[in-house]
Amino acid sequence: xxxxxxxxxxxxxxxxxxxxxxxxxxxxxxxxxxxxxxxxxxxxxxxxxxxxxxxxxxxxxxxxxxxxxxxxxxxxxxxxxxxxxxxxxxxxxxxxxxxxxxxxxxxxxxxxxxxxxxxxxxxxxxxxxxxxxxxxxxxxxxxxxxxxxxxxxxxxxxx
Length: 159
Known about the structure:
The protein is built from three helices and no strands. By secondary structure, it is mainly alpha-helical.
């Protein structure tokens, strides 16, 4: 067995054909791989050549828009801050008007109570034995008038 057997011509031919078949298969795989790589390379090259490297907007136009946006933002901040003070002024003027109206109402109420008191006094003169109820109602009217004067003073003290 140490001796090498000699192969017949037919056996050698089968072995050589097997190796050729394997080499052919390997060559086909290499060719297909090269075709795919070449196709991908050409596609990428075509895409790169056809694409625009220029931006959609000119740089100067973009910078102008940024400046405009910045100016508008600054104006908006100024408007927002002035809006707060305008609202405060409006509220203060509204409060002053309301305060004055309330003071006038209290004064009118006091005048009404004074007129009512005078009318009750005149009525009490006409009706005999009415002194007691006149005193009771006079006290209540005086209390109401004092409370009205106190409210008026409080309203005048508000700022």
